[in-house]
Request: fold
Amino acid sequence: MTSALSIDPANLASQYTQIERQAKDQILSTQYAKYNNQIKAFTQLKNDLSDFFDALEDYQDPDTGLLTNTASVSSETNMNVTASADAVSGDYDIFVEQLAQAHQIALSFDPSQPLSTDGELAVSLGTDSFSVDLAGLPAGATLTDLASAINNHADNSGVKATLMRSGSETFLVLTSEESGAANTVSTTFTAGADANGANISNAIASQQELTSAQDAIVKLGANSNITVTSTSNQLDNVIDGVSINLTQAQQAGETPIKVSVAQDNEKSVENIQQFVDKFNTLLSSINDNDALKRDVMASGIGRSLRNDFQGEFAGKTLFSIGIEFDRYGKLSIDKGKLEDAIATQPEQLTHMLTGADGLMAKLEQRVEPYTKSYGLINDKKNTLQASLNLVTDKQQRHEYSMEQVYNRYLSQFTQMQITISKLESSMGQF
Reply:
């Protein structure tokens, strides 16, 4: 006969409850893991698609696109150049007659003399101007305060004031923030009652021009009279697709600088290979993820992306230029075909890959609905989250139910212990 001392009601209740709950625990746990893993997988997929979308935009940017041009100059002392994918191969002669400069003037002051307490200093930049009221400066104001008032004036359209010192002189230096002949700096002073205003008037009258305001001037061709002027030393519209940064003027009689633009075949192949790798990585993130590969939406994205490579672009197939899928379903390139297409038909290749109706635009249109904050993947995640919430509710209700089962078993086994204890006590009397 079982002794009352051998019965542990709590332990027995726990064991019987565990047996009863085990099957449903497993079902709910499996469902929870499934939905939770899917949510995580779709979150990562959205991130991967967003990264791919950003890359597609970059590929269509002429400055960072797939097809790359290279530019060189015969003298890097005078200029440096860069070429976008839109640049046309060719050689160009450019003579740098002068550089653009920002206007700079200096007004000399005796620092031992106090600054005027009234009057207005007008500062002009080209056709714009503003005035500093010296009466508005702090008591005992110095040239430093005047420079700050100029720099912080609400109507200042681009004049920088600084102080320079040489021996017994302090110079108020005014510099245009923009170069070019039109951006000249000038000052006038309307004196007030304070006699110290004469110092400002004298400084203006004796001002020194440190740097003249001038445009950049270049001549095109070795023997041409075609002249280009620019307020800046950055010339972006002289040769289509070529950015020229002027660094030093040439001397009269010097040979023009030769600018050469050519297709960078090696870099272009490298860029296209990078695109292929990104595409394959994206597909692998779908196909190799257990939470995605059996999902209708995820697998549909993969199929749609592969299908976007079919058909013709600018009258030719991608296969004809060496972009194709191998027998394993991976995107690959035939380097020989691709290099030949880059060398012989760069413009058509550009239209095929990065044109308005090219491959990148087609893929971008495909991917975009999934990347938006209110897009298709977010809808999918919301649906999965709702399912996960239902499972969580079921788990909570199940947990409450199992607490009731435990309490019932505990009561039963406790009563059993009491009953056996009474029997043992009764038998002990005989």
